[in-house]
């Protein structure tokens, strides 16, 4: 845990934050997660951070929320529980430090829910801790800086960011041999991308555009990104900020009025933009938000194109937010089976996929965060540096398990559908010197799609 | 020496325990109503924001049923793979406990007394012991009443050699001891241990031991028997009355949780 971050803890502010979050967020789902846990610790088996220490197992982390809820909403918690433990109205300094440590050891990947015999989503309880942490100002400064820029839209004032985005638009134009239609209303497809994806894998966006063009789809692209990786607030615990950003995104989608919003990211932004944004804003979309694999699988099954096969062992890493949170399990497999007869499943896949530990609440690779900070002109202080160093440790521990299972099936290519998974697994492959290479599925498919009749 | 000393009928824990059964059930239902009521009061109907999902397609009826089975089985499957010892011990402990609570012949008579249709399950009755009680294959009796005939001629057949109250209780005590040891391990690892962990396990352990002593006639004395059996029922009543406030309630909520997960993934997310 970053000691510099814990020194910032203002216990009075923390008390206020606890009251605000716990009293306003209780509902039957949270109540169920609090009351029904039998402390069997089965969730240990699913959590990527258990490798960092059993104290990071979901049941143990989420206990802080349980104690805060019990102290307010159960007879036992309001009476005996406060004396013998198990219920806490507020947190002492060391407990607050533990809270600050735990919240950044959860990617909200959802593994705990599927492994739990009671289907308890400890990630939802840890998310409440994250909201408390944010309100109390216990947050790595670099994340706060990035989110402030996103909420205020000031990221677009940075020339380097404009250059990157406009450069991406130009490259797409060069690849498809014509100018890109920007913000075109009533297009069938809106190709959605955040600034983050433009930074970490511009080629994937360009190749997706190439595929859409090859298939003759009526598509459009965004003249500017709707955020850095919107809404960052969701993963750092800023519920108010994330709502502001979601409103902006929804307004844009409504204005463009596409039939499909297609994204290449299967990170937290997928379930957020597909489900959560509409649930929070209480709106029913008249478009479908989909991952590129969903669209391609459908078009492939309808015979719009063929896939030239690879003679290699390939596998698929299910991004947590795409599979566990988003329910997209079958579509990538339709494409992968068409791509290679030697497609092999990883020992843990689908809803049981092992998280790369880079996504959700962990917010990407530390090196990417450093690059982003540099780009926006933010200098990392000691607490930021210490925090990012700790992240590397978790990536190594979780990555070890991932590489062990990759090595069991020895694929030449590990395909995935999320920028963070690609980065994190790439990091682990380099660190543990595995023989496989990791790609976004579009990177391989784009050159192997053969449109019928062309 | 008196061969049959005076035995004060009606003056034992057994009678106290029996007379407290109905109040226990009342407390249980009051507690369960409180617990479920809290869920209902704080429930918010989810907004279905799922458009028709033409790209992903619809989940067929067959897939939905398959999903439900997978959803319920998944945690055990993953647990057996990644945490084999605790998962298998856990599954066996639950199985043993369920068999003893609901199918042990003596317990069945108790349940059937309060819930008469329960007697339909009599053919599944598990004898108290393979060695005594005249209810087992190894010591078959010649019953003169219909009820005894049902118990002697159960469907378990030779299995009653191992599928009997004594063996199951030995196993249950071993499994519960492993569970308790697991709690001590967690304590040593400075992981969270809740008061409810000790309370529930301790009561369960005591209750199993009391039931075992009573049914085995240890010590072999009628007064002791009545008091031990009474204490066994009393502890069971404490467990039942406090179920809505303890982890024991998971026996009812487990199903709800898994169905909720299934609904979340299959209907709300349309997982495919």
TrEMBL record, chain A:
One of its GO terms (molecular function) is oxidoreductase activity. It comes from the Archaea. SUPFAM superfamilies: alpha-helical ferredoxin (SSF46548). PANTHER family: FUMARATE REDUCTASE IRON-SULFUR SUBUNIT, HETERODISULFIDE REDUCTASE. The keyword Transport applies. This is (Fe-S)-binding protein. Residues 28-57, 96-125 form the 4Fe-4S ferredoxin-type domain. Signal peptide: none annotated. Keywords: 4Fe-4S, Electron transport, Iron, Iron-sulfur, Metal-binding, Transport. It comes from Sulfurisphaera javensis. Coiled coil: none annotated.
From TrEMBL, chain B:
The chain crosses the membrane at residues 12-34, 91-114, 167-186, 198-218, 224-245. It comes from the Archaea. InterPro entries: NarG-like_sf. Keywords: Membrane, Transmembrane, Transmembrane helix. This is Uncharacterized protein. It comes from Sulfurisphaera javensis. The lineage of its organism: Archaea, Thermoproteota, Thermoprotei, Sulfolobales, Sulfolobaceae.
